[in-house]
Amino acid sequence: MSFLARVPKRVILFSIAIWISILFAFFSPFLSPHDPYKTDLSMRLIPPVFQKGGTWNNVLGTDHLGRDMLSRIIYGARVSLLVGFVSTFIGSVIGVILGLLSGYIGGKTDSVINKLMDIQLSFRVILLAIFVISIVGPSFRNVVIVCGIASWVTYARVVRGQVLSIREKEFIEAARGIGCSTIRILTRHVLPNVFSLIIVISTLEIGRIIVLESTLSFLGLGVQPPTPSWGNMILDGKIYMLQAWWITAIPGSVLLMVVLGFNIIGDYLSDLMDPYMKQLME
């Protein structure tokens, strides 16, 4: 049986949906049917094509300023996914480095890093992000940095736990015996053994960070208008829910689908990399 035949259909379907959203993000200038920033009050609140009054010129309708919804959703994919991927990279680099040092070196280093983790875990991530953004100001760069810093603890805790077990293995003792430096042991012997866990965590964290960015944008603390983001698009339609439901519902549905896709894929990868679950699937 081929590998694809053993992959659940839901994983394949959501993987396709995520790849489509990534293609939208990369090629948004070519795939967008209209200028997402162009306003035309004479075209405001046109419904989607499948509803009475809709037109094929604006397949998903227009918003309260006459901007094309499909174009803004395509450009919004660029913002939301870029924040998700870049912030995840920042968080993973910080968390993995601190987790490796904490688990392998131990002692005072482990105590200090554990205290830092406890301090951050004592705050709700969204409250911490709101507090920092309120001080430094809302912008794309600040949102990326804050979301990245807010996600390092998950990596650090998991990596630390794995390193505490790996550092007692025979091959680590052998590496120490032949005089390998700490950096070489961590990068050549320890890191490859925790890399699969990092991939799983990153897949799950991308979805969580996309939700965090959308929440900040909805609160007016994320990516600022007129730059399209799924979060501020939902905010734009909040007061038009009764007369123009699509302004909020369509970007909200896209956000739900993408985040759910990352979570389902992350959950599948977690099961796939678990030895017991892998044995059951073979």
Per DSSP E runs of 2 or more residues, the count of β-strands stands at 0
Specify the overall morphology: elongated
CATH topology title: MetI-like fold
Overall pLDDT score: 84
Architecture in CATH?
Orthogonal Bundle
The name of the CATH superfamily reads MetI-like
**Order of helix and strand elements from N to C terminus:** HHHHHHHHHHHHH
Structural class by SSE content: mainly alpha
Number of helices: 13
The count of domains is: 1
CATH class: Mainly Alpha
Residue stretches low in confidence (pLDDT < 50, at least 5 long) are: 276-282
Radius of gyration: 22 Å
| Ends distance | 9 Å
Can you walk me through this structure?
The protein has 13 helices and no strands. The chain starts with a helix and ends with a helix. It is mainly α and 282 residues long. It has one domain (3-281): MetI-like fold (Orthogonal Bundle). The protein has helices spanning 3-6, 9-26, 28-31, 69-105, 107-121, 125-136, 140-150, 152-166, 170-177, 182-218, 230-236, 246-273, 275-281. It is elongated and about 75 Å long. 72% of the residues lie in helices and 0% in strands. Residues 276-282 have low confidence and may be disordered.
